[in-house]
Amino acid sequence: MFDPFKDFETAGYLRNKFSEKDPQIVQQLEHEMFRVGLDEAIAYLARRRSALRYEDFLAVHRILFEGFYPWAGQDRAVTAPDIAVTKGGTWFCHPADARRAVQEGLRIGSDKRLLRQRPGEVMGLFAYGHPFLDGNGRTMLVVHSELCHRAGFCIEWHRTKKSDYLTSLSAEIATPGKGILDKYLLQFVGENQEREAWGGMIGGLPGLDGKGTDDAVAGNYKDAEVSQQYREFERRREYPIAHSTDGGQ
Description:
The protein is mainly alpha-helical and 249 residues long. The protein has helices at 8-11, 23-47, 54-65, 76-79, 98-109, 112-117, 119-129, 136-150, 162-174, 180-185, 198-203, 224-237, and strands at residues 83-87, 90-91, 153-155, 189-191, 216-220. The strands form two sheets. Strands 2-1-5 form a three-stranded antiparallel beta sheet. Strands 3-4 form a two-stranded antiparallel sheet. Strand 1 and strand 2 form a beta hairpin. Helix 2 (23-47) packs parallel to helix 8, helix 5 (98-109) packs antiparallel against helix 7 (119-129) and helix 7 runs antiparallel to helix 8 (136-150). The longest helix is centred in the N-terminal third of the chain and has 25 residues, at 23-47. The protein is globular, with a radius of gyration of 17 Å.
């Protein structure tokens, strides 16, 4: 059980507003909240005329999940600043670097030419940033869809296969900038779609119900072994978004 707050028995999964513990009920409630807030999140991004910022990423998460999580819209630098989070052997970035990772994705994604060439790299940066304790995949899908819309195309997510996508995404996180996820997503580039159609398309995608491998707490960065494991994963990535876990920047 993913329990970074260490209060699951008294507060439920991630301190949700209903103190719910049952995994199936949590998934159902979380996904319903996501579907309820989806149109509002899409409308919010449509109103943002300038380049999207990290604050917009936070705002989308808040809109999607504020009905379920009291910390919705707050990143791990606030909610779990010292906790190392992993999933299936993949390490996500240090909480202090979540902003930088997402901002780099937004920088690339705001360039229409670059995004058409590197849609997977953008998604990989969002995923590595992993700003939130839950709801990252759905948040970054909405933001990524807006970036693609601004660039005049879409990713036809309904044609993708969840297992293949997640395999490519994990490889992208571990070895970014090599075009692994780009190669996969570029197969599914389609004509631009009006935002009004996104709600039904995104909300109905299989695999967005929260079911899958749970995040895990790898430990505290103050632990020398945890810090070393993270530094080794980051070293192998060879991508300049590293935060020193021994107190330096």
